[in-house]
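REQUEST FORM: STRUCTURE PREDICTION
Request ID: SP-0412
Submitted by: Lab K.M.
Chain count: 1
Length (residues): 244
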Amino acid sequence: MSPFSAELIGTLLLVLLGDGVVANVVLKKTKGHQGGWIVITAGWAFAVTVGVYASNAVSGAHLNPAVTLGLAAIGKFAWADVPTYLAAQMLGGGIGAALVWLAYLPHWKETPDPADKLAVFCTGPALRHLPSNFLTEAIGSFVLVCGVLAIQSPKNLLPASGFATGFGPCLVGVLVWSIGVSLGGPTGYAINPARDLAPRLLHALLPIPGKGGSDWAYSWVPVLGPIVGGVVGALFYQWAWQPA
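STATUS: Completed
RESULT:
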């Protein structure tokens, strides 16, 4: 498997299971309807864990442009490989969203609220204030990238025992769960441009009855916020934990 394929498959699984849990909670007449925020955040945490396990050995399991750009910014990833990773992440996110649409096909027409249908594919603010929404996404992504780098640190895990390799993806899932529970309320915590932009594109393209608009006026927030926060988080980690 190539790194491109690994990133595509890992991101596909992340979005399939992540958007899938949102669909299960918000769409009408599902078994999980009205399961609540804890179910959604847990589902996304498990989705990240599965995606990381599926791709980590081949590509390093970035699954997120904010992670890829953050690692490149501190010299832990080659800039020449960034376009390949970003393309794979976007394509995987789009395919994952399309599979969710298929999995819940009868439920779209049973759900009258266009906002609920959009929420399956992408994030939106609880209170619409774009500067604050941007800041929330940046803070969450700062924690994500800084936390991932800390989890991977040999000082925190014991590579010789196999603990780091075997259990690291679970800790990344716990990190994402923590971000969702603690910081996800204002914006729905995209913290990943591929998780938000690619499914948003699919929402615009797919034949979903009564779907409404895709809220392109907000779409830059879950793209630029995570990128800025991810790069700053990587730079902060390098400065704080790995001084020259």
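NOTES: The chain has one domain: 3-241.
Reviewed by: T.R.
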